[in-house]
């Protein structure tokens, strides 16, 4: 049991695009908060250091932890040389979102069949592509999703032997972006609904002459007449033989009983004749189609059922690039378990949602991470306190061993109290290398002060379940923990640290 993400097609990236694809995957994983750990053991303390995803050309990477979710899942990884990504259990929050985004990247980069899915269901949501477009500066659309028949056919045929209903209306709707469903109307959508729901709703009094439903109805009547005349148990076999013929042979069919059906085959896809026959003879369409679809005709000349204006309008929607979705918006969690069983102490307080204030490690001066007015004010106040602490320490001789011991003890103490507070690897070693400098010693004392000042807010973490995935985010992302995570992320971001703290 659990939640698994996958890609339904073959993960084939052309040789000439593998390098670019790998860079894109690495960026999604990095900005999505995927992390590795370095385990260290010093002075009797065991500790984990965060290592953001880095991928070298042709290299491999494995990870299991998401910084924003503060939780670990089963290992996932990417092989840049092969262009191959894999995952196991992914949970239902940020880890899931980022893994699924990578699967969407395969979808938009691969012209062949294939879709992001979770637990066997196609994922419906253009927000993943919106995030990709935002982060990578691309202009991908959801165009691939609108090849409804090709998508649904492949999906259903792969499930025929394992599912009573290989394709449901929900499955079909999962292929179609919600905001673009108007553009999905047409003959392929109609055929799929007729296959799933039958054609009993086709009533002559309600049908507009010359429309696709009218032609479906006429074909159905022709088949009904044929089966009324031919009561043989193998009468359907004659229909199957008919739809295996080419256009000229069907046009010149000599069997008078099949003539009307043959004429309809000139303007309707073979699947129509098969699903109508399946309905009339109470057979299962997808089982029939699996056996016959490779041998039927594909040379019908369909009528033009939609106006030029409608077709142009649909095409515009289908080919339109998905609007960019900012990272904080993409990673926002509001699912069933997001605020499950919030303790009474926190009732009435605002729910926690990720913001750019939680993404300070990724600040680079661009618009990617926007520092809020509140965060700016807090950091300036911390910088003031840091300057005061630095002044007090000025002139005192620092000892590297003492610094290391104190640093480790403090980090272990903070993690023990606030839970799952991990320093970034780069910051940890930088501080050790500069243990004799006042600004680093002051930063360590400021970390201690932030920890002490926020213990009352952080105490609520005691309410956390062993499984954080079913613990209210108002508990796991309490403001006490967040302030420590945010401070450590600033200390790890040299440019941002320089901007506020001057070192």
Question: How is the topology of this model organized?
Answer:
Blueprint: E1 5-7, H1 18-31, E2 34-42, E3 45-52, E4 60-66, E5 71-79, E6 84-86, H2 94-109, E7 116-118, E8 121-122, H3 127-136, H4 148-157, H5 169-175, H6 187-197, H7 212-229, H8 235-242, H9 247-251, H10 259-265, H11 270-280, H12 285-292, H13 308-319, H14 327-330, H15 373-393, H16 400-418, H17 425-433, H18 438-453, H19 455-458, H20 473-476, H21 479-492, H22 494-501
Antiparallel strand pairs: 1-7, 2-3, 2-4, 4-5, 5-6, 7-8
Outline the structure in words:
This protein has 22 helices and eight strands. With 503 residues, it is of the alpha+beta class. The strands form two sheets. Strands 3-2-4-5-6 form a five-stranded antiparallel β-sheet. The chain has a three-stranded antiparallel β-sheet with strand order 1-7-8. Strand 2 and strand 3 form a beta hairpin. It is elongated. 36% of the residues are buried.
What is the beta-strand fraction?
5-15%
Give the strand tally. 8
Q: Specify the oligomeric state.
A: single chain
Q: On the 0-100 scale, what is the average pLDDT?
A: 94
* Cα-atom radius of gyration: 30 Å
In short:
The protein has 503 residues and is α+β, with helices and mostly antiparallel strands.
């Amino acid at each position: 049991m659990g939640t698994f993400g996958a890609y339904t097609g073959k993960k084939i990236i052309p040789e000439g695009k593998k390098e670019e694809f790998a860079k894109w995957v690495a960026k999604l994983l990095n900005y999505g908060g995927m992390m590795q750990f370095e385990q260290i053991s010093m002075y009797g303390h065991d500790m984990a250091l965060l290592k953001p995803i880095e991928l070298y050309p042709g290299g491999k990477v494995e990870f299991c932890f998401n910084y924003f979710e503060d939780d670990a899942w089963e290992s996932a990884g990417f092989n840049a040389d092969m262009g191959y990504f894999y995952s196991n259990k992914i949970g239902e929050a940020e880890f899931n979102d980022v893994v699924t985004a990578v699967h969407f990247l395969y979808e938009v980069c691969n012209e062949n069949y294939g879709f992001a899915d979770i637990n066997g269901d196609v994922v419906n949501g253009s927000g993943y592509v919106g995030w990709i477009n935002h982060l990578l500066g691309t202009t991908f659309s959801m165009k691939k999703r609108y090849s409804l028949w090709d998508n649904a056919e492949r999906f259903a045929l792969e499930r025929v032997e394992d599912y009573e209903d290989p394709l449901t209306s929900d499955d079909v709707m999962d292929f179609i972006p919600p905001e673009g469903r108007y553009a999905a109307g047409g003959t392929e959508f109609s055929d799929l609904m007729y296959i799933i729901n039958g054609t009993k709703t086709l009533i002559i009094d309600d049908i507009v002459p010359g429309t696709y439903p009218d032609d479906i109805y006429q074909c159905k009547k022709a088949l009904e007449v044929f089966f009324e005349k031919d009561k043989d148990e193998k009468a359907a076999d004659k229909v199957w033989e008919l739809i295996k013929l080419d256009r000229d042979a069907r046009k010149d069919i000599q069997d008078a009983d099949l003539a009307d059906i043959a004429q309809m085959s000139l303007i309707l896809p073979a699947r129509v004749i098969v699903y109508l026959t399946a309905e009339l003879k109470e057979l299962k369409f997808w089982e029939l189609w699996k056996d016959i679809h490779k041998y039927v005709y594909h040379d019908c000349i369909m009528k033009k059922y939609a106006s030029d204006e409608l077709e142009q309008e649909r095409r515009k929607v289908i080919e339109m690039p998905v609007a960019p979705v900012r990272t904080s918006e993409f990673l926002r969690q509001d699912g069933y378990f997001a605020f499950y069983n919030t303790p009474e102490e926190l009732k009435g307080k605002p729910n926690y949602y990720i913001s750019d204030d939680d993404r300070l490690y990724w600040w680079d001066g661009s618009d990617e991470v926007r520092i809020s007015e509140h965060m700016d004010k807090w950091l300036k106040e911390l910088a003031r306190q840091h300057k005061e602490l630095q002044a007090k320490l000025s002139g005192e001789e620092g000892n590297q061993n003492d610094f290391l011991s104190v640093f480790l003890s403090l980090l272990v103490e903070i993690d023990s109290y606030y839970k799952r507070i991990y320093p970034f690897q780069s910051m940890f070693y930088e501080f050790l290398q500069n243990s004799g400098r006042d600004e680093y010693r002051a930063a360590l004392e400021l970390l201690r002060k932030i920890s002490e000042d926020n213990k009352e807010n952080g105490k609520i973490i005691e309410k956390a379940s062993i499984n954080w995935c079913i613990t209210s985010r108002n508990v796991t992302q309490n403001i006490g923990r967040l302030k420590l995570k945010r401070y450590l992320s600033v200390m790890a971001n040299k440019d941002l640290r320089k901007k506020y703290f001057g070192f």
